[in-house]
Specification:
With about 350 residues, the chain is α/β, with parallel strands linked by helices. The protein contains 14 helices and 14 strands. α1 crosses α2, α6 packs across α14 and α9 runs parallel beside α10.
């Protein structure tokens, strides 16, 4: 920090202070800050050392006036606030994206928009240029946010496949259908034949694809789909509890249940305990995600691991490429069956 001419108050260091400390011109410092083009390695090292010594921090507002960019990215979750705090997957994604952007010195702004009014306000804020791009999480079918942002020219990457036909939105997704197929095959390999399912929301791509994988494997095994063994949930613990209770009432001979998220599977375990069903002796339970909810459950959950670290990294990579002018892209990542004590 540098002393000001008005008393003992200190002013923040400027680009001129960095140039003086490094023994280079202000233009050289500016080129280093903007990517290091046409700067010798020795000058670049001198500038970086001067930045560390002086404690200089880039004035993002001033730079944005020149570049037309905000140098920030939005993490938009179209769910109510309570879901953000309940579901561990959202926090893992947020943390991963924050770390991936930090490597590029780009801050991440968390935006929660669980109602139509909130989504309208957030869309106005984004299209006004306050962020350079958006990482969109949990976009439901019929939610216009993704398409509105795309039409406004906002770089956008969605977590999960878009639901609308012919969507041109970039996305990164785990292979939900293949993961579900692996789980149901595993339950069949244990000799279970009356396999129930608590689905995710069927207006989300993961909910649709996990149900499709469940149906496909049972059909391939020659087992007729019994609709009494399928109930819907919304990825909350409460819906897993209520859904499993409903399954037990409709199909008391159920000997396994595939629950479309670990958080819902915690609720399923609670419902089975109340009903006096032992896990896995009477009913085997499989989840999906391999979140902290899987290892905290009793018994620990057999589940499908989503590669959240890679999902976060790829979402950031695809978004930054799009901000840089590249075309939209789609990335689908493999899942993995993780066996624990619930099956």
């Amino acid at each position: 920090m540098t002393m000001s001419s008005t008393g003992g108050r200190r002013r923040p260091p400027t680009i001129h202070d960095v140039a003086r400390e490094a023994g280079v011109s202000r233009g050289t410092v500016s080129r280093v800050l903007n990517g290091g083009h046409y700067v010798s390695p020795a000058a670049q090292e001198a500038v970086n050392a001067a930045i560390r010594k002086t404690g200089y921090v880039v004035n993002r507002h001033a730079r944005s006036l020149i570049t037309g960019r905000s140098d920030s990215v939005g993490f938009l979750l179209t769910e109510p606030q309570e879901r953000f705090f309940e579901d561990p997957n959202f926090n893992v994604l947020l943390s991963g994206c924050t770390q991936a952007l930090a490597a590029h010195d780009i801050p991440l702004l968390l935006m929660l928009a669980g109602t139509k009014d909130e989504r309208r306000r957030i869309t106005r804020y984004i299209t006004a240029g306050h962020v350079d791009g958006v990482l969109l999480v949990s976009s439901h079918s019929g939610d216009p946010v993704a398409e509105e942002l795309r039409k406004a020219g906002v770089p956008l990457v969605q977590c999960g496949k878009p639901m609308g036909p012919g969507s041109k939105v970039s996305y990164v997704a785990a292979d939900d259908r293949d993961g579900a197929r692996d789980m149901v095959r595993h339950l069949l390999s244990l000799g279970r034949r009356r396999i129930g399912m608590v689905t995710g929301p069927l207006d989300l791509p993961g909910g649709v694809d996990r149900l499709a994988g469940y149906r496909e494997v049972l059909t391939e095994a020659g087992i007729e789909i019994d609709e009494r063994l399928v109930v819907s949930g919304d990825y909350s613990r409460a819906s897993g509890d209520a859904g499993t209770e409903r399954l037990l009432a409709q199909a008391p001979d159920m000997d396994a249940v595939f629950v479309a998220s670990d958080l819902m599977a915690q609720g399923a375990l609670a419902a089975l305990r109340r009903a006096g069903r032992r896990v896995p002796e009477d009913v085997a339970v499989g989840g999906f995600d391999d979140s902290s909810a899987a290892t905290e459950a009793t018994p620990a959950l057999t589940t499908i691991r989503q590669p959240y670290d890679r999902i976060s990294t790829e979402m950031v990579r695809v978004l930054l490429a799009q901000i840089g002018g590249e075309d939209p892209a789609a990335v689908i990542l493999p899942t993995e069956l993780v066996k624990r004590d619930s099956t």
